[in-house]
UniProtKB/TrEMBL annotation, chains A, B, C:
Binding residues annotated for L-aspartate, in chain numbering: 99, 184, 239
Record family assignment: Belongs to the aspartate/ornithine carbamoyltransferase superfamily. ATCase family.
UniProt pathway: Pyrimidine metabolism; UMP biosynthesis via de novo pathway; (S)-dihydroorotate from bicarbonate: step 2/3
Species this protein is from: Alloalcanivorax balearicus MACL04
Gene expressing this chain: pyrB
PANTHER family membership: ASPARTATE CARBAMOYLTRANSFERASE (PTHR45753:SF6), ORNITHINE CARBAMOYLTRANSFERASE, MITOCHONDRIAL (PTHR45753)
Residues where carbamoyl phosphate binds: 71-72, 121, 151, 154, 280-281
UniProt protein name: Aspartate carbamoyltransferase
Amino acid sequence: MTLAPPSSRVQLTDDGKLRHFLSLEHLSRPLLEDILDTAAGFVDVGGRAIKKVPLLRGKTVVNLFFESSTRTRSTFELAAKRLSADVLTLDIAKSATSKGETLLDTLRNLEAMAADMFVVRHQDSGAPFFIAEQVTPRVAVINAGDGRHAHPTQAMLDMYTIRHYKGGFEGLKVAIVGDILHSRVARSQIHALNILGAEEVRVIAPRTLLPADADALGATVFTDMVQGIEDVDVVIMLRLQKERMDSALLPSEGEFFRLYGLTNEKLSHAKPDAIVMHPGPINRGVEIASEVADGPRSVILNQVTFGIAVRMAVMSMAISGQESLDAAQAAREESGHGH
Amino acid sequence: MTLAPPSSRVQLTDDGKLRHFLSLEHLSRPLLEDILDTAAGFVDVGGRAIKKVPLLRGKTVVNLFFESSTRTRSTFELAAKRLSADVLTLDIAKSATSKGETLLDTLRNLEAMAADMFVVRHQDSGAPFFIAEQVTPRVAVINAGDGRHAHPTQAMLDMYTIRHYKGGFEGLKVAIVGDILHSRVARSQIHALNILGAEEVRVIAPRTLLPADADALGATVFTDMVQGIEDVDVVIMLRLQKERMDSALLPSEGEFFRLYGLTNEKLSHAKPDAIVMHPGPINRGVEIASEVADGPRSVILNQVTFGIAVRMAVMSMAISGQESLDAAQAAREESGHGH
Amino acid sequence: MTLAPPSSRVQLTDDGKLRHFLSLEHLSRPLLEDILDTAAGFVDVGGRAIKKVPLLRGKTVVNLFFESSTRTRSTFELAAKRLSADVLTLDIAKSATSKGETLLDTLRNLEAMAADMFVVRHQDSGAPFFIAEQVTPRVAVINAGDGRHAHPTQAMLDMYTIRHYKGGFEGLKVAIVGDILHSRVARSQIHALNILGAEEVRVIAPRTLLPADADALGATVFTDMVQGIEDVDVVIMLRLQKERMDSALLPSEGEFFRLYGLTNEKLSHAKPDAIVMHPGPINRGVEIASEVADGPRSVILNQVTFGIAVRMAVMSMAISGQESLDAAQAAREESGHGH
């Protein structure tokens, strides 16, 4: 089939450049590698005395957080500021929408203020797609986490981290452990690992925290931690939402830790040079033991560092994609074919 | 009478330059036209790849919001940042005043921090005037809406919009429709339209939403929508505050919409090229039908775009007025006449 | 004793440069004078048309406010912006820590985002010390007030103010009046005044608002206001926390004002050219009469102005101290002695 699938049609320009960043499904391996390569340059910026580049100077980035998340908001805010953008943060839950304005009217108003980018966090799966389909061509949309669907910048910073420590994805076995059912992070990671050519992706979870269609995830399913972790190169622990405990999905924190919490003992079944990752914030003694989180194989804090760089990369690439659209449009109008 | 009236004495320097922007009453037509002309340059800035000019670089703009308004705050914040100012936003209701400090002491402290401008939103009519009378000569005060009194930047962006689409004000008939009684926007619009030479200003509202002294407004009063809208060039719909519904002032939303809500049918009584405006956020199906809000005669979103430019104009003109005062003062001191 | 005491070991580099600013105890007179001299340059910046210097351009300053304080946060935010830093403000009480993350994990994450400075306000005495001991060498920590322990930038702006009006500290008698027991400000002021060589420091308070070890404060203790204020050059009034009234510590506001509130009458017992200071926000008619607060001897608002400059000085000196550490470390690694 040569027709691009819907999500890539929304995310890419006609000549394949990123213009929105919503989901990793259907994106190509070269594009993901381009993001990782671009991020590498921004990792250097973070190490300089002056951590600032002028790429987004005079651009307006609007943080549209329908669901609040201090950490994710902070990383995007820092990434935008290091790109020299002006940042406006809107806690939409408390703002104009509460005056009875529709979401679309809020968006139209922000567009009219000449916003260049919306960084969207939303409790509903698909909301950033809806927004990307509705915004004017000039405005780039970045998904900062939507419902149970996707968290693509998190997945890409994870890919950056894996490539940094493992040199690439070929032959790699990666295990993702924990609450797969509710995790937008896991969903995005599985897509990214498959696109980038990892040898095997495994998910490890109790049956109650696996989706009904677990077989369709694109990963091998394990309910036993020791079996699942056997011989892997990378272990990605997911954060266990405390709310799940209160529902009937889980027995107890202690029981979960005994069965799925990552300890040095369980980690010993992975490859000797396996790295340990976690999207944070970590629950010590729930999904991960402190001996592992603070141990020599943990790269959890490096993920955070790479995360700023990956967000700078995605933001600057999307703005650049939008500008190439603008230029193409201007050229068409010049030659009398557009309007 | 050659004596300048009190409000213009506060707002202007001795040689007639803007130094505060509090109310449109008593301002001259050339001054309002100067604001509109200055804004035109900033509309261009909003269309550029780098939406930033250095006019207020190194200046400190303090948003003093005693009444909260995400939208108005955002537009002033963006305007200030595009002028390269540093912006400090204070939600005064939750801040130092709650520690028992007086308003004056809060102001004096912000002045002592070398603030250059206060953007004031207040639930009490006249509060920005009080503040302007109290601040040190160096600090410019911009009214971002006070009680039922004035919202002059909103009115000026409306004037910009009208001039943009109609070329000027001569011969224009303008109808303002809705809750005139509680609207600071309407009050400022009527002043502006009369100063700029509109032929006729009409207000259209049920008796319960008209002030007792409606005849003194400077506008022709209509209680019938169809009669009032007849042959006008511009229809400005006001936002209906839901709170009014609960009081005895209004029958019901449905009844209000039937009598005063703007539909294509009612709009057909205006001139064929009449434009439709609204200060936002709009209540669809209450004061305006979606067919009109989203229709070809609506310029509601253009108002938002022009609003950033008008705020940039007013802010830069007031700072420039304050600086000319400073320079004059320095010259007087130099020549030995100062104190 | 030649060994540096613990607090100065944490705060200073091996060659005696400031790298954190946590407490004035054990700091040397030349260092405090260096801070005051550096601040003098920044007072000039605050008077310029463009109040901005590029010293912290491309640096990330994180305001970590565990205890909320709009005024202190605003002054640090303005100081950082005038140094051209990027500022991220975190209201920690409502943020990641509430997700069950430990303080240390929050710090490690912010470090991983390449933060250069933490400005810490905390309800617990010693928290900024704990943080300074834990952060990576690259990150400077500034104490913006911790429990009852210290508020060193407030004390240094007070010292700046005294030096500005009195020319120096030699021969000076300074009285600090009010709630000594709960005041971190008083504790820091007494340290600073003794280090800088004031002749006599007095504290004046009712017994219930004096610490049990008042004699160890480094100040002469008075319970009678008129006796205590006799012949002093500087009167520093402390803010009376209204909460204290409800506890059994104080009779009533009226009674406190009668005994300890600063009036012109009480002030007449000080030297004729004595200055009056207060950290703000003031309680008029509780600890200070308006006739004094607004009178010719009050320098309360000048303190605020100097406060921005002193914070700019401390922030730029600490960053510079950290950078000299980095450079020394790099040199050691170059010559093969590092690790």
